[in-house]
Design goal:
It contains seven helices and eight strands. The chain is an alpha/beta fold. The protein has one domain: Rossmann fold (3-Layer(aba) Sandwich), CATH 3.40.50.2020. A six-stranded mixed β-sheet has the order 5-4-3-6-7-8, sandwiched between helices. Strands 1-2 form a two-stranded antiparallel ribbon. The protein binds 1-O-pyrophosphono-5-O-phosphono-alpha-D-ribofuranose (PRP) and orotic acid (ORO). Orotic acid (ORO) binds next to strand 2. GO terms for molecular function: magnesium ion binding; orotate phosphoribosyltransferase activity. Keywords: Glycosyltransferase, Magnesium, Pyrimidine biosynthesis, Transferase.
């Protein structure tokens, strides 16, 4: 694992973003773990998180013109990534986000920040069924821009509607990469290295992967 991947997992554990237990997902699946990015709730956490996303994006070599953070949890993630790209990598990138409900006074509208022009990189936490990302892709296309890719924190590596994962479906439909900082496999690897206390969580994760995992 890269140092930024270990940092990301440890940060997620420390802020109780990554929890083990029994959680019902939007899809109705009962998962032995859950990733709640809303719990990255301090300046230090967001700064570290921004560095992890920025490193992943820079390492990928992906070219893009604008960052877009979908409401709500994508907004602080995209903001933190924009700050880290400027501070750590000398790249001052335009940054935008959306409102879930259109504003009807003042400047009005749904989009806030930089205009969506050129190649747009979406920053979010998790993709499960892909609904949120599909909505945001429509927004990008109706603004006359194009999707450069999507960067997320965790790839749950689960089946979508068919045999492919929701992420693979997006990659194939739009011919763009979905970059993730960590995959479910990294969480399993992390638990394996922890030994002892993590045995129960590890067994449940392996069982879940048998049922819903994709290669
Ligand atoms: O791939 P999907 O099945 O769409 O699920 C994943 C999305 O769901 C959550 O956002 P949500 O839209 O619930 O909004 P939030 O950011 O306000 O929590 C999460 O932050 C992901 O963006
Ligand atoms: O599938 C979901 O609903 C889901 C899974 C997860 O790990 N985190 C999250 O915010 N949503």
């Amino acid at each position: 694992m890269h140092p930024y991947q270990i940092e990301f997992i440890e940060l997620a554990r420390q802020y109780e973003v990554l929890k083990f237990g029994e959680f019902t997902l939007k899809s109705g699946r009962v998962s032995p773990y859950f990733f709640n990015a809303g719990a990255f709730d301090s300046g230090r956490a967001l700064a570290a998180l921004g560095r992890c996303y920025a490193q992943r994006i820079v390492d990928s070599g992906l070219e893009f013109d604008v960052l877009l953070g979908p409401a709500y949890k994508g907004i602080p993630l995209a903001a933190a990534t924009a700050v880290a790209l400027a501070d750590q990598h000398g790249r001052d990138v335009p940054f935008a986000y959306n409102r879930k409900e259109a504003k009807t006074h003042g400047e009005g509208g749904v989009l806030v920040g930089a205009p969506l022009k050129g190649r747009v990189l979406v920053i979010d936490d998790v993709i499960t069924a892909g609904t949120a990302v599909r909505e945001v892709i429509e927004m990008i296309e109706s603004a006359g821009a194009s999707l450069a890719g999507v960067a997320i924190g965790l790839n749950r590596q689960e089946r979508g509607a068919g045999e492919l994962s929701a992420i693979q479906e997006i990659e194939q439909a739009h011919a763009v990469p979905v970059l993730s900082i960590i995959d479910m496999a990294h969480i399993i690897e992390y638990l394996e290295n922890q030994g002892g206390d993590s045995a129960g969580a590890l067994a449940a994760m392996r069982d879940y992967r048998e049922h819903y995992g994709v290669a």
